[in-house]
Amino acid sequence: MESAFPGSNFQQYLEHCHDLFVLSGTAAATLMGVLFISLSLHLDTVVHEDNKHIHAMALESFYGFMWVMVISMFMLVPLMPMRPLSTAFIMLGAVRIGMMVLNSRHLVGKTDAIFTRKVLFRRFIPPFLGNASLVYAGWSLIRGNNEMAIGFVFWSMFMLLITATGAAWDLLMRVGRLKALLARAPGGASH
């Protein structure tokens, strides 16, 4: 089987993937901007004490988009040495997994008609796998398995971007329905 890396040159292969990384980073930045705008319209609901799970979901979406942007930027740095790139991937994935575990305490036990256990599972496991894939990509680079590393970087970016987008949608639907319920409640309380 022929190597995907012409002449085993990782940098040449990355040049062939330039447009993919530009597209991924741009999509993540655009979606993060949309998330900022939509949440700023309902900031009172997102930051209310009773809605810590909503804030936690907003953070999960935000960090998913941000990580795809950061990964894309690292992959676009010309002549990026392998050691710093692999270290960055391992650190980004490990830090994000730690953040997800800490943030999950606000999601556990917060199920309702929209945030069912199935939805929470769907919003936690794929980003966890995406970040674990990023750690593995870094480890593969250290071991010299460049083809496997780049495959895991692609997989990680895909998982993070797709799940952050889905989480952002679920979040916006939850906030909208919560505001509608509160508006219909006696006294029309808002948060």
Cα Rg: 19 Å
The dominant shape is elongated
Number of helices: 7
Helix share bin? over 70%
Low-confidence stretches: 1-7
Tell me what portion of residues adopts beta-strand conformation: under 5%
Pattern of helices and strands: HHHHHHH
The average pLDDT score comes to 84
Query: How does the helix and strand content classify structurally?
Result: mainly alpha
Domain count, please report it. Answer: 1
How many DSSP-defined strands?
A: 0
Rounded to the nearest angstrom, the distance between the terminal CA atoms is 59 Å
Give a quick account of the main beta sheet: strands, pairing sense, barrel closure. Answer: none
Topology (elements, then pairings):
Layout: H1 10-16, H2 18-40, H3 43-47, H4 52-76, H5 82-103, H6 117-143, H7 146-184
Give an overview of the whole structure:
- This protein has 191 residues and is an all-alpha fold.
- The chain has one domain (9-176).
- It contains seven helices and no strands.
- It has helices spanning 10-16, 18-40, 43-47, 52-76, 82-103, 117-143, 146-184.
- Helix 2 (18-40) runs antiparallel to helix 4 and helix 6 (117-143) runs antiparallel to helix 7.
- The longest helix is centred in the last third of the chain and has 39 residues, at 146-184.
- The chain is elongated.
